[in-house]
Amino acid sequence: MDPYLLFALACYAAVMLGIGIYGYKHSTGDVKGYILGGRNVGPKVTALSAGASDMSGWMLMGLPGAMFLLGFETIWIAIGLLCGALLNYILVAPRLRIYTEVADDAVTLPDFFAKRFGEKKGALRLTTALIAIIFFTLYTSAGLVAGGKLFESVFGLPHYAGVLTTISIVVLYTLLGGFLAVSMTDFVQGSIMFVALIAVPIVAAMQFNDWGVMADSTTQWIAQENGLLQDVGQLALLSSLAWGLGYFGQPHILVRFMAIRNVVDIGQATRFGISWMFVSLLGAVATGFVGIAYVQKFGLQLADPETIFIRFSEILFHPFISGFLLSAILAAIMSTISSQLLVSSSSLTEDVYKIFSSKTPDEKQGVMFSRLAVLAVAVVATMLALNPDSSVLGLVGNAWAGFGAAFGPLVLLSLYWPNMTRAGALAGIITGAATVLLWISLPESVIGVNLSGLIYEIVPGFIASTIAIVVVSKLSAAPKQDLINDFHTTVSLLEARNH
């Protein structure tokens, strides 16, 4: 192994662990500090933390690889994601930040739902927490698969060794520093990803004397394999754009809005986050686009299209720079895994444990239970990730749809519809999650069609969840007046801020 490459990766790992130690010393004395950083996170850290935890390894591996598999349909996925993220900042972030504080200082999404609908211990909180844990475990395993592919491709390690190395580093700094460490590492990781996604496609394109010829080569190959942009069918177009719906229900992103210092900072976070996301998505799509032409011209052997960013990093740059670029992949993977582990552990501690426990743990016990929960989720996700044939984009797509359908309509309606009821919320969560799981799992041999291939499962799941919430809320008893008062208090605070 080249010593420059090893040194660069070692420096990156040391920085991540150093931030974990800093977070351990400054923000983990109580549960609120461990889970939300004391609601004192600045706008730039919030924006990059949300972006880095969102995009993960699939942006540097899954999205470029999708250009090989889906062609120009990938562009519509990127457009859908960008629009969804912008709407999430505009529609959800301000109200969620205020409402979670008004709702008796809720620190997790299940905690917010329970307090929003007047439930102390019951089915809504437990169902929300369990669905979050299930889909987060699947989501975390997707990141670990990406980590396994990275270490397998670069260092020649077995897949399982790469998975274990990735989870070991992430668990250590997440256990130590909690939300503050996760957010700070996300900021560093997001910065690394941003630079890498600009540098790699530009340097790869410079290997061609004529960029027009390069573009023609890629376009012809995509036309033969997948069809041109105008050939994308209506259902395929809807499926790609529908990725944006997922943003409204992603707990690891929404928790960033809950933790920001104040609602006034959300405007700056929006500008910073969307700018970062636009450039990063453009770089990821460009990497796949140039990669297709490069493979055609130079005969690059590429067994797995999702490793094109890795191969470019290895063959086009000095080993020390390669180490920095490969750190970007590791950064993307770790940023999402750490966020998912932390949110999963907070649900296990704040929502599952407290429902079944006869006594409320003190702050030190709460932090200890959160750390144990991080470890438990990590173990299960690691076991799921040991299959080297798993697709990063496929696993992310399933988990993204699950969250988007189960929680997306619930989040939006809970923030904008005061007459929504607890029964409606519970019906929406179960209907959305069940629809996605059925859409994924029903075998083609039984029903005669691949439902996920027909249309992305988030679309039927989101629609079914919305209908269930509205219908059941209309049929059930109206919410109590104090809950409606909390809703109007939130709206009043938001209007005061706007004026």
UniProtKB/TrEMBL annotation:
Record membrane topology: Multi-pass membrane protein
CDD domains with a match to the protein in the record: SLC5sbd_PutP
Domain of life: Bacteria
Entry's Gene Ontology molecular function annotations: L-proline transmembrane transporter activity; proline:sodium symporter activity; sodium ion binding
Pfam families for this protein: SSF (PF00474)
Transmembrane parts of this sequence: 6-24, 75-92, 123-147, 159-180, 187-208, 269-295, 315-337, 368-386, 392-416, 423-442, 454-472
Gene3D superfamilies (alphabetical): Sodium/glucose cotransporter
Location of the protein in the cell: Cell inner membrane; Cell membrane
Keyword terms of this UniProt record: Amino-acid transport, Cell inner membrane, Cell membrane, Ion transport, Membrane, Sodium, Sodium transport, Symport, Transmembrane, Transmembrane helix, Transport
Record's catalysed reaction(s): L-proline(in) + Na(+)(in) = L-proline(out) + Na(+)(out)
Biological process (GO), any one: proline transport
Family statement drawn from the similarity comment of this UniProt entry: Belongs to the sodium:solute symporter (SSF) (TC 2.A.21) family.
Protein role: Catalyzes the sodium-dependent uptake of extracellular L-proline.
PANTHER family: SODIUM/PROLINE SYMPORTER-RELATED, SODIUM_PROLINE SYMPORTER
NCBIfam families for the chain: Na_Pro_sym, sss
UniProt name for this protein: Sodium/proline symporter
Organism the protein comes from: Planctobacterium marinum
